[in-house]
Amino acid sequence: MTVATRSGLSDNAASVISYFTFFPAIAFLLLPSYKSSAYIRFHAWQSVLLCITAFVFDIVLGSIALLTLFLGTATLAYSLRILSLLWLVLWLICVIQAANGKRFRIPLLGGIAEKLAMK
């Protein structure tokens, strides 16, 4: 899906940009020339939901890390690094799929994003 919008950005480009923090995603949800595309709305909503989920996970895991700070466990430190790497891989998959014109649905979040995009 590479239909150009009025501002010159294709739907794919706008969808990719929406994954770079939640600010562009919210902008695409509010700007009339972009919110008319269900494809852009889906990726924008999925990006917002992914950012919220990552923030919540970061708070929860950061709290756990603080509680175990005095235990000095290397396992927790490596687990947090692996989780961060997995978040990066998931984000890259979303960006690449959006660039290729596909609707990659993250489990749970993708279904919610799909419902929100149809409103």
Sheet bearing the most strands, described?
A: none
**Rough outline:** elongated
Question: Could you list the spans in which at least 5 consecutive residues all have pLDDT below 50?
Answer: none
pLDDT averaged over residues: 86
Strand content: under 5%
Computed CA radius of gyration, to the nearest angstrom: 17 Å
What series of H and E elements makes up the topology? HHHHHH
Which keywords apply here?
119 residues; mainly alpha
Protein described:
The structure is a single chain. This protein is mainly alpha-helical. It has one domain (11-113). 71% of the residues lie in helices and 0% in strands.
Write the layout of secondary structure elements.
Blueprint: H1 11-17, H2 22-30, H3 32-35, H4 38-67, H5 74-99, H6 109-117
Helix pairs in contact: 1-4, 1-5, 2-4, 4-5, 4-6
Quickly describe the structure:
With 119 residues, the chain is mainly alpha-helical. 71% of the residues lie in helices and 0% in strands. Helix 1 runs parallel beside helix 4, helix 1 packs antiparallel against helix 5 and helix 2 runs antiparallel to helix 4.
